[in-house]
């Protein structure tokens, strides 16, 4: 169970349908595949999706920090030394996605070594999650068409709508068209990725007051401290902190300060070990939790399901698990399938998925 090597492999897969939102656009999945090897011949895998416009990480930066800082610290440790690994990696500031991918690949290797699923090891609450689909910026009719297709083909009935454009009327029109087009039974919520000011957000939320929104997420910057508190205090839906509250300390600060009333957990940035810390804090504080999406590929999405399905609080609401559908291809031998609005765990040890070596050869960019 000793770690003998950690690989960080860049790969590049174009999106068939790019995702556009207030803080950026994603046209190509320039991700990093992380493989943790052990002296038993076991290999654990995970993927790191850099989001430079949110966390400052890049594909090359993730590889550099893994190869030069984390790998030398972790090689030689046992897979069960996860608290020690977290402490060692925690000495380096930032780099959440690089740390998270190593942590999840270690859990995958541990599960494979023990012959148990990661989700069982984490908590084993259920074996699937309902899926929420994230709709990026487009014209109202195109977004309604996409949501209808997701409902028809995959049974998805929860949609997170990207907002935060100027003028805000563009987004208000989209959300209204979705409610009118899809009817009262779908769940709709909005995510602004900090695109609006607090007062623009308050105004837009008033204009959408009759549209039965379930949540609002990061509509304005959390660093506009008083404005954000003022906004959150007047809303009658939970306000989800996403990129502003990624660690237990940030969650504590934002929630106790009145800048958020719910949180998004993304395994892509807190792995399994860090996500459990955030989750347990959320339980202690009585916060609602949504499993978020860092625009993950299939490997990242199965990690979100493994974590979300493992715990009661993370499986309560639909998780954001479907944006891999917008990619032109992926790395797994058996593609994930969303059926009846759900994504199920894969049977088998670890994460229950395998990387297709031929596809990896095709998409890796380092050879
Ligand atoms: C989200 O919830 O904000 C956009 C950027 C990112 O890192 O995640 C997405 C979705
Ligand atoms: Mg968000």
From TrEMBL:
Entry keyword annotation includes Protease: no
Single GO biological process annotation from the record: peptide metabolic process
Essential cofactor(s): Mg(2+)
Mandelate racemase/muconate lactonizing enzyme C-terminal domain segment(s): 140-238
GO molecular function: magnesium ion binding; racemase and epimerase activity
Family: Belongs to the mandelate racemase/muconate lactonizing enzyme family.
Protein name: Enolase
